[in-house]
Amino acid sequence: MPRNRVQQQKGLWDDTFERLYPDEEACRKAWFAWRWPEGFKCPRCAAAEYCEIRERQLLQCRCCRYQSSLIAGTVLQGTKLPMRVWFRAMHLLAEGKKGLSNIELGRRLGVSTNAAWRVQHKLMQAMIERDRRYQLGAAGPRIEIDDAYIGGERTGEGAGRGRRGHTPFYHCRGDLRGWPPAAHPPPGRARFPGG
Fold first, then answer.
1. Which neighbouring-strand residues pair with 171?
2. Residue 43 phi, psi (nearest 5)
3. Which residues pair with 50 in a beta bridge?
């Protein structure tokens, strides 16, 4: 049986994570680079020059003197937890196949269960909002998918998807308007995998 590419994706090992984000400063630098890939831009006047107010963790524009936080307007806005805790939570939630309970997440992060619950739900909400932009069929054709199993009833062999003697059959249909003619199946004939 061939390997499933989704299950075999390379992730970020724990030791690699620790090497990339060893302290708060490394996390702040990474967040800065993700937020402003072309360099800082003032939200008010779009100027590029700034100075840092380290005591308050703010960036101040040199042109209009507007003060902006690195985490303002992001999922981290208003948090009192260190940025490293958030990075570790992102890593743990993204790496696990089955997810983590907020109790286990709290243990691994060294924070209370309530804090772990808030972090987990804020990150999950951010992922949901991002995924809503990438719905199948949202910008293109409508897509319908269904599955069935071909094979008669047999007693004593169990039930469900793992049943012996059943052949899985998947049917996917899209709105074919606008597709090239070669993509259409011939009239009266269905396309089957391998057929």
1. 146
2. -65, -25
3. 61
